[in-house]
Design goal:
By secondary structure, the protein is α+β, with helices and mostly antiparallel strands. It has ten helices and seven strands. It is globular, with a radius of gyration of 24 Å. The mean pLDDT is 82.
Length: 256
């Protein structure tokens, strides 16, 4: 997107855009998840209300255009969300949700060649990480084995030796799936504790010439943003804190 802040800005804008719409239709929304510009929606309301929900999104901003996938309630529903392929199908015992790995149609599987320069141990780590991803995204062992065989063939086509592939594959088995999916909860990270205690966000800048002038001119109050939210001021905190990072060494900026 051009700059480091672009993704954060896009996320903030989408929160501002979607919050009143989601709250308006929350009675019919079973699940609503968004990662930047990708949205997953589980809808339990009537089709007419779904059309109205889609219309609200379509007219919320002229620069935002959403493409909706497979929402025919009379047939099996299949959607792609991030790297998951999610299917809702009718079974004898009722509807069932199955997960699979989403593969982009134009994916050339051009994995980093085995003879390239990165440290050798990183190859094993990357292979294991991909096998674990295939493991967590597969609903049954047969599906996972099929994905692993396909992955193996793509690696062999890129020149990876069989022994190196097998060493990575043998570190993961189907019985590990639950351990990877259900990790014990970690204590609240420090940033979550900070927000809970102070109800504010942090603006972080580098210690550089002009920092004192910036501090004197900077307004850390977010009341103006809250006033623009029109009844949804709880989306953002009312204040910000300034954090000054240590200056990078001169050698970081000089060309080697």
């Amino acid at each position: 997107m051009g700059t480091a802040f672009s993704v954060t800005y896009a996320t903030i804008f989408m929160i501002w855009l979607e919050t009143p719409i989601v709250q308006e239709f929350e009675l019919f929304i079973k699940a609503y998840k968004r990662y930047i510009g990708d949205i997953f929606l589980a809808w339990t309301g009537p089709p007419a209300e779904l059309q109205r929900f889609k219309s609200r999104f379509a007219t919320a901003d002229k620069n935002i255009s959403l493409e909706w996938q497979n929402n025919d309630i009379n047939h099996d529903q299949k959607v792609d969300y991030l790297d998951l392929c999610i299917t809702v199908s009718q079974q004898p015992t009722g509807k069932a949700i199955t997960l699979g790995v989403f593969h982009k149609p134009g994916n050339s599987y051009a994995y980093l060649p085995y003879g390239s320069f990165p440290a050798r141990h990183t190859f094993k780590a990357r292979l294991k990480a991909e096998v674990v991803r295939l493991l967590t995204h597969s609903c049954n062992a047969n599906q996972w084995l099929y994905e692993c065989r396909t992955f193996y063939e793509h690696l062999r086509a890129r020149g990876y030796p069989t022994k190196a592939i097998q060493e990575a594959f043998h570190n993961v088995c189907w019985n590990d799936r639950r351990r990877y999916l259900y990790k014990p909860p970690n204590p609240s990270p420090a940033n979550e504790q900070f927000f809970t205690n102070y109800k504010g966000c942090v603006l972080s800048v580098d210690n550089a010439p002009g920092i004192e002038m910036l501090k004197s001119k900077l307004n850390l109050s977010l009341h103006a943003i809250q006033q623009d939210l029109e009844g949804h001021a709880d989306i953002f905190p009312s204040k910000a804190f300034l954090s000054i990072r240590g200056a990078m060494p001169l050698g970081f900026y000089l060309k080697r």
